[in-house]
Amino acid sequence: MNPHLNLEENMKLASVLEPSKPSFFPAMSKIVGTLGPQSRSVEIISNCLKAGMSVARFDFSWGDTDYHQETLDNLKIAVKSTKKLCGVMLDTVGPELQVINKKETPISLQEDSFVVLTPDLDKEATSCLLPINFTGLSTAVKKGDTIFIGQYLFTGNETTSVWLEVAEVNGEDVVCLVKNSATLSGLLYTLHVSQIHINLPTLTDKDKEVISSWGVRNSIDILSLSYTRHAEDVRHAREFLSKLGDLYQTQIFAKIENVEGLTHFDEILQEADGVILSRGNLGIDLPPEKVFLFQKTAVFKCNMAGKPAVVTRVVDSMTENLRPTRAEATDVANAILDGSDAILLGAETLRGLYPVETISTVGRICAEAEKVFNYDLYYKRAVKHAGDAMSHLESITSTAVRAAIKVKASVILCFTSTGRAARFIAKYKPITPVISVVIPRLKTNQVRWTFTGAFEARQSLIVRGIFPMLADARHQVKGSMTAESTNSTNESVLKVALDHGKAHGFIKPHDRVVVCQKLGDAYVVKILELED
């Protein structure tokens, strides 16, 4: 039996057909939705939030800052009307190679014909010549190398993707043999050279400009660093963010897209706040039979490090269809059984016909997979992996998870001002939801006092099992004091959190609740049994 599954041996298959019981938290796993042409109105975004989207991704590979600002303004209206928190992720362009087709007319390429890739952007794109935005391709490739060109966020179902083989290099031009017939039609085409180093910075000047303007203006929660290849890429991005006001708080998720990033994965994971496994480009760089192995190994490493693992490209066919394929539905479930924190939807929500239905479908599959996830085995393995190196905070939070398992608690309430304690609890993937009660901190820069806490609350929206609550500013703590520094604050916030749980139905009479908090200098785990 698969050790990740927790199935009873005498389980009748007919029970699979029984409808799932409704729950306040339909899924512990999170869904990142890319907002675009099919998903940027207030109405659609509101429905996406209701369907289960908890982080909105803004992809700057296309569209200008004004376009994305309008979308984000609509998101803010939707968040206010639905009363659902949503994180904001800015996805950088990075060293992305693009085919430049100024006229945007369809280009037909025939199998066994030749096409020239040129850095001369003054030339028009034709079936014999494709201008690209990179002058160094001729020095990076050699005869026999494989090049893939596909519609941006290609799904694999289109007849608009083409494989090329380098035939010869002629000055700055690269002559390629077309391996399959295809028609390039659409707004944006990207080019990927298999297992070749592209000598361009990971954080480009364009990326820096977007982050400095749009990112700062909108206090982005997460930066998705495209084409992360080395730990230094993450360090450089963090240094850049540290000088941009509130963005010193922004988390950096390394997007692993090629063999170079895979090779340096361990060092990158140490530096990053989370990892996005970009399976679209990885599927080109890796042999197909190796993709699953990379995914499972990378997710395991993220799990043991206590950092979110996000998987992309799961239900491509839903870009144009109302239901996923059987393979896709199984793929989503396996990603959750592997331990993934979130599923990232790209083309499915950006230009797909059914963005809301896609989010809803993926959420339901995640919820079903979570029901058979072997929490007990996972907990034991995570504790064993942490070993004697476990910090005091991790020791306490892992104990809270164990207590919740033993007493069959309905929820774990975690009081935090930085989010660290809640993330440590989530690392051990408890079967119960973790309500992270974020206590605002009052800080000063000698000019004015400001409350912090919203960043921490929204950033947990990509972590499996955490559901944040931002406490009222009246319960704030000043300066460097702990979030649970006084008994009066403590009891007051606890009552508010419990009342909130009762009002929304996820805490019921006679339920047991595990509470994890800091009292003075000591961390405390306590078990409450609620009365009527």
From TrEMBL:
Keywords: Glycolysis, Metal-binding, Pyruvate, Transferase. Its cofactor is K(+). The keyword Transferase applies. Its EC number is 2.7.1.40. It catalyses: pyruvate + ATP = phosphoenolpyruvate + ADP + H(+). Residues 394-518 form the Pyruvate kinase C-terminal domain. Transmembrane segments: none annotated. The keyword Coiled coil does not apply. GO terms for molecular function: magnesium ion binding; potassium ion binding; pyruvate kinase activity. InterPro entries: Pyr_Knase (IPR001697), Pyrv_Knase_brl (IPR015793), Pyrv_Knase_C (IPR015795). Residues 29-359 form the Pyruvate kinase barrel domain. It comes from the Eukaryota. It is an enzyme of class 2 (transferase). Pathway: Carbohydrate degradation; glycolysis; pyruvate from D-glyceraldehyde 3-phosphate: step 5/5. Belongs to the pyruvate kinase family. NCBIfam families: pyruv_kin. This is pyruvate kinase. The lineage of its organism: Eukaryota, Viridiplantae, Streptophyta, Embryophyta, Tracheophyta.
